[in-house]
# Entry
Amino acid sequence: MDLVLAGYLSVPFAERPSLPSDWLPGRFISVSECLTGVQHGPEFWAWHTDRDSAARFEGRLLAIGLTIADATALAGELRPQFAGMAERAAAECLVLRQTFEPMPHDAQPRGFEIVGVESGLMSVHSWLCHGYDRDAAVRLNRWGLLDSHARAAAVLAWILGLPPKEAPITAHWTVAVIAELPR
# Structure
């Protein structure tokens, strides 16, 4: 599977929410501010475009990746939101550039997280924010992530097929690979 770089973040371990979960470890990795409790992206963006900017923050240094198909779909949804400022948006959002960058060679994949990108990439939510892990009854790895893109895509399809009362917030929901980088 070819993965492209979406951005970088430094995040602390998230703590399991107060609701019980048989599947989620007590401490886990997430790119969602809802779960980490800290703002770790640059102003107005959910994640950084360069490694050094992200590394200035405390926590685990992560590279966030997408499949080419998922990056193309996200870019297609974001481009109309940045009409008239395409150059600036491309400078500040990797998936809006003309060519995708590969994941860093030293990135160690930890697993896959289902994320909801909203407000033109100003914030990112996790499927875990909504407690779907309890209903999906899937095993998460020691990092609190799904072990395969196929499994994460199947869970995402299930989530998106839920009745309106149970559906997630309106966002561009996708599967992201979460990889850890050495500091």
Notes: The radius of gyration is 15 Å. The mean pLDDT is 85. The chain has one domain: 3-16+23-180.
